[in-house]
Structures are given as C-alpha cells and as structure tokens.
Specification:
Shape: globular
Number of helices: 15
Subunit structure: Homodimer.
Radius of gyration: 22 Å
CATH superfamily of the largest domain: Type I PLP-dependent aspartate aminotransferase-like (Major domain)
Order of helices and strands: HEEEHHHEHEHHEHEHEHEEHHHEEHEEEH
Keywords: Amino-acid biosynthesis, Aminotransferase, Arginine biosynthesis, Cytoplasm, Pyridoxal phosphate, Transferase
Bound molecules: 4'-deoxy-4'-aminopyridoxal-5'-phosphate
Number of strands: 15
Largest sheet: 7 strands, mixed
Distance between the termini: 40 Å
Subcellular location: Cytoplasm
GO molecular function, one term: pyridoxal phosphate binding
Binding site for N(2)-acetyl-L-ornithine: 152, 299
Length: 435
C-alpha cells in the first residue's frame, strides 16, 4: 500500500537533489529507497518492490533481518572499532568460522578488508609476494580470464577484463594477462614458471552468470600446482551461500565433481556482511599464508568488530535456518519456471545466482528497443514493483536475498511475460509515432 509519510521528502525532490550533487559519480538512479524488510523494499513515494537483486548478491538474509540487526546493534553498543593494532572476539570467531567452512588446512589465515575490490587487492599482493619469493626472479605474470570482473580499484581493475572499465584509467598495474575463459588448453598454454597466480571467478557474475565446463576448475587446480602458480578464487559474488553451498568451489554443479576444488586463496565480500561492508581474503595452508608477513599490508577498518559480528550473524543464520538447501531448491524452481517463458532463450542457474537471456517472444514482430531488451525489462520491472538487473543488452541477472520465498519466485515467473509484453508494446507505439 502506498503511504507517503507526511513531511518526508518526496522522491522527485530527492532525485532532483541527487542530480545536482551526485550524478556523474554514480549512474542515474530512478528510485530513492527508504526502507526494506525481508525481500521487499519501499521507495520514497511508498511504493513496494520485490527485490530480485539483493543489492547485487549482498543481502543474503534479506532486508532488516532481526538477527543481523541485533548482532550489529549489540556490537556497536559494546565495542565498535579498535583498529588492527588490537583484535576482538567477533574478528577471531569469524576467522575461525570461515576457515572451518572453507575446510582450510591447519596454518591457513584470514585477512579482513572492507569490500570485494579490497579483498582482491590483497590477493594480488599475495600473488606479487609469491612471485618475489621465487629465486628465479621471473615469476611476475598474473593470469585472469576474459569477461572477468574483480573490482574497480586499480589492482582489481587491472584483473578486470571489460575494456570500457579499464581504458579510461590506463596505465593500469602491469603484468596481468587475459586468457580465454573456461578453456583448459588455453590456460595450459599460458602457464609456465613465470606465472605467479591465476585468478578465476568460480561463477562469473558480472559477465551474465557463466560457469565452466565440468572439470575446468580442477584442471586449473592441477595445472597451477604443476607450474608453481597460486590459484585464486574470487568468490565475492559466488560465495557465502549464493549458489547453495558455502562457497561455489564446493558446489558439484559448479565444479562438476563431488570433492571441492581447493584454491590457494579465496576472496569474499558482498553476502558475507549481509549489507554491512566487509571483505576477506583466505589464504590456504601455512606456506601461502606466510607470504604476507605482519605489517606488510593493512587497512584501518578491516575486520572491525561490527562488520565481523555481522558476518557471524549471516553465517549463523544461514546454518540455523537451512538456507543452503533452500537456495538449492528454490533456485532450481525459479530456473525451471523462467526457462519455460516464451522469449527466454537460456537460463544459467547456480543456486540463486541466475542469468537469463531474453529475446522477442515468438510471433512478435516488434524490433528490440535501443539499448537492448534486458535494460528495458528492468525499467518495466520497476514500474511493476520488481528490482531486477541487466548485465548486458539481452541478459537479466537475478541475485535475490537468499530468503526469497516460493510465492515471490513464482510471481516473477508469472509476470515476466507481461513485462516483456509491456516493453514491446511501448516500443511499438513509439516506433509507430516516429514513422
Ligand atoms: N569480485 C567480484 C566477482 C564481483 O562481482 C565484485 C562486485 N560486483 C567485486 C569483486 C568487487 O566488489 P566491491 O564492489 O565490493 O569492491
């Protein structure tokens, strides 16, 4: 129900202020959001939306989850920040829990950061350290995959493939090369004793949700080990339960095998804090962990008590409420439903990380709108009360809160044909008027 709070600033007014002070820093948002609860958010005009984006794979528990609110509130009221000259109970407990869930061997360590980019900066530094420890002095190359996304800070950007993200900021840190994604032969051809590390998203999110042929990740594991390079998994988007296992490299649907593919380092962020900023880099085993020595790297806020208390609340709640199984089951149901919609040409689904390719439904003559069908469906979704996301002109990416219910999932499936229809009808009308 639409309920505008008396005296509260209007959405149009707020968007006007945004336009004069913030546009140019971020994109142009069409809504000001004021409140969230579970899988719903409300805008400044009181309109409700079902959230199929989850803050881009962040809101693991949904909005304003009582366990997360309580953990953060209590921690902030007890001990909020201490710097890394000290440690705290939540920081230690979250590190222990992550190592346990990652089945990391004795001697593994966790470095806490504040974002995915920052976690990947730490991983890149780890790779550099590994290279510099090599007596040959020649182990300086880092391999990343085409279509990868690892973040927007300069080091993370240097490992990110998309030319339009990179080119405005060149020169980027050097030594990073891209190889065809999902191609074990290409990886083998690029690997030799000059490679310090290979970084891979077990499921690429920003590219439109792409996994790999069965066995690719294990091949990457075997090949990097053979050539003495580190294998780094960027699980910023795919981790923390998103695909229905704690981490995607443990998911048989991702790896094609029952046993996890264990990396040398893994980065996390997004869902780990459930909305509170936190990042982490886990280094597996004592040898890799020893590459970064105390004081070599740091960050003021990393692992602060509030963020780590949030992380613990997220992991506890996922475990206690059986969310991994729910993600597994509901993701499959959603993918089945979406796959049967006329106009959907492909569904790539790993738990509740879902890429949906769309085209004009059969028998419809309308040309595709400028900018593509998917961004237009996102806009139509907003009008119909959905937060959706497009990763390209014809690809929708869904990454809803893990607590999404069957009812909401089924409703999106039922509404997608009318969203497509609305887009195409509006476009046809515009087309007719112009001609
Ligand atoms: N790695 C991956 C795989 C991501 O999807 C993202 C964010 N989309 C990042 C890194 C960067 O994370 P952040 O925006 O928190 O810096």
């Amino acid at each position: 129900p639409a309920a505008t709070v008396t005296g509260a600033p209007s959405q149009a007014g707020l968007l006007g202020r945004y336009a004069s002070s913030l546009t140019g820093v971020f994109g142009a948002p069409s809504r000001v959001l004021v409140r969230g609860e579970g899988v719903h958010v409300w805008d400044a005009d009181g309109r409700r939306y079902t959230d199929f984006l989850g803050g881009i794979a962040v809101n693991a528990l949904g909005h304003a989850h009582p366990a997360l609110v309580a953990a953060v509130t209590e921690q902030l009221g007890t001990l909020g920040h201490i710097s890394n000259l000290f440690t705290s109970g939540p920081q230690i407990a979250l590190a222990e829990r992550l190592l346990e869930l990652a089945v990391a061997p004795e001697g593994s360590t966790v470095f806490f950061a504040n974002s995915g980019s920052e976690a990947n900066e730490a991983a890149l530094k780890l790779a550099r350290r590994h290279g510099r420890e090599d007596p040959s002095g020649r182990r300086a190359r880092v391999l990343a995959l085409e279509h990868s996304f690892h973040g927007r800070t300069l080091g993370a950007l240097a490992m990110t493939w998309k030319p339009t993200y990179r080119e405005p900021f060149e020169p980027l840190p050097g030594g990073i090369e891209f190889i065809p994604a999902g191609d074990a032969a290409a990886l083998e051809a690029a690997l030799d004793e000059t490679v310090a590390a290979v970084i891979i998203e077990p499921v690429q999110g920003e590219s439109g949700v792409h996994g790999w042929p069965a066995g690719y990740l294990q091949a990457a594991r075997d090949l990097t080990r053979r050539h003495g390079a580190l294998l780094i998994f960027d699980e910023v988007q795919s981790g923390t339960g998103r695909t229905g296992t704690w981490f995607a490299h443990q998911n048989p649907a991702v790896t094609g095998q029952d046993e996890p593919v264990v990396p040398d380092a893994m980065t996390l962020a997004k869902g780990l804090g459930g909305g509170v900023p936190i990042g982490a880099m886990i280094s597996f085993g004592p040898q890799v962990s020893a590459l970064l020595t105390a004081g070599q790297h740091g960050t003021t806020f990393g692992g602060n008590p509030v963020a780590t208390a949030a992380g613990l609340a997220v992991l506890d709640t996922i475990a206690q409420t059986g969310l991994l199984q729910h993600v597994h089951d509901l993701g499959a149901r959603l993918a089945r439903g979406l796959g049967a919609v006329d106009g959907v040409t492909a569904v790539r689904q790993y738990g509740l990380l879902i890429g949906v390719d769309i085209t004009v439904p059969s028998g419809v003559e309308t040309p595709v709108p400028d900018g593509g069908l998917a961004p237009a469906v996102v806009r139509a979704g907003l009008e119909a009360g959905y937060l959706l996301n497009a990763t390209g002109p014809s690809t929708l990416r869904l990454a809803p809160p893990l607590v999404l219910g069957e009812e909401e999932a089924d409703r999106l499936v039922a509404d997608l044909p009318s969203l497509l229809d609305a887009v195409l009808q509006a476009h046809q009308q515009q087309h007719d008027q112009e001609n």
